Amino acid sequence: MVIVKIATMEKRVFHRATHNISVTFCCCITEYYSGVLTNISEKGMFISTPICFPLDSRLNMLIHTTKEMMNIPVKVRWIRMSTDMYDGIGVEVLELTNQYLDFVGSINPT
Asked: What is the number of domains present in the chain?
């Protein structure tokens, strides 16, 4: 049974920038999956992917930039579905690093 947390339309504390960045993520050392990061903020992101993980799953998100690869630990906070298909996962960033915050700032200038 898959539990899906319904996303509410509350006002977000951090602005989310819309983007399309290919990412890789894993839940263990040997299994890697791909997706597209479609929006990002200082505290979270949405990954468009047909892969579903249980709520509260911890993943390592790998974002490849032109300069480096960032490994960002995240937690699945919600799942988006449409017509019996998974559209993606909303994740919370667990460790804010200067590298990550600089990256978000570079694509989401305020």
From this structure: 1
CATH number of the domain that residue 66 is part of:
2.40.10.220
Distance (Å) of CA 47 to CA 28, 30, 110: 18, 20, 22
Residues in Cβ contact with 2 at an 8 Å cutoff, skipping those fewer than 6 apart: 52, 54, 79
Look up the domain containing 53 and give its range: 17-105
Distance CA 78, CA 12 (A): 15
pTM of the model: 0.78
pLDDT tens digit sequence for 50-76: 888 899 999 999 998 778 889 999 999
Domain contains 4: no
